[in-house]
Specification:
By secondary structure, the protein is an alpha+beta fold. It contains 4 helices and 4 strands; from the N terminus they run E-E-H-H-E-H-H-E.
C-alpha cells in the first residue's frame, strides 16, 4: 500500500449545534487493519462512520458535538498537525501515534479533532433504568 501523502480532511458538521459556541475539544486516534481504513484506490470505508463516531465520542464525555475534523494518514507530520497544543493528555496520545507510524510506515490511522458545544445536561444511565415515582 502506498503512503497517503495528501490526506483529505473529512469534516463532520452538526447543524443543530452550529449556532452554539465551541466550549471544548478533544482528540481521537483510530488504528485498525489497513483494509478497514483504506482500500487500494484510497476510498475510505471508515469515513461512512465518522459522523456516528464523532457523536459517540462527544456523548461519552457528556458533551454535544459542534463539529469534528478527521484525516486518514500514514504521515507523522499530519498527526503532528492535527495535535492539540497545550493539552498534555492529547499530546501524549499523538506522540504514541507518531511513534506507531514510524514503527510501521505505510500503515494508516484515522486522526480526529472534536469540538464540543456544551454539556448534554442530562444524566447518562448505563445499565440502570431511572425510577419514576
Amino acid at each position: 500500500m502506498s503512503p497517503i501523502t495528501r490526506p483529505t480532511l473529512y469534516r463532520v458538521e452538526c447543524p443543530s449545534n452550529a449556532d452554539r459556541e465551541v466550549t471544548g475539544f478533544d482528540s481521537a486516534i483510530l488504528v485498525g487493519p489497513a483494509d478497514l481504513l483504506v482500500m487500494p484506490d484510497h476510498e475510505v470505508p471508515i469515513v461512512m462512520k465518522l459522523g456516528s463516531l464523532s457523536h459517540m465520542f462527544a456523548s461519552s464525555v457528556g458533551d454535544r458535538l459542534h463539529h469534528a475534523n478527521w484525516r486518514v494518514t500514514t504521515d507523522p507530520a499530519v498527526v503532528e498537525e492535527m495535535g492539540r497544543p497545550g493539552c498534555r493528555h492529547c499530546r501524549a496520545g499523538f506522540e504514541v501515534a507518531k511513534a506507531h507510524l514510524l514503527k510501521e510506515p505505510g500503515r494508516p490511522m484515522v486522526v480526529g479533532q472534536l469540538f464540543y458545544a456544551g454539556s448534554l445536561r442530562q444524566p447518562v444511565f448505563v445499565g440502570v433504568e431511572p425510577s419514576v415515582n
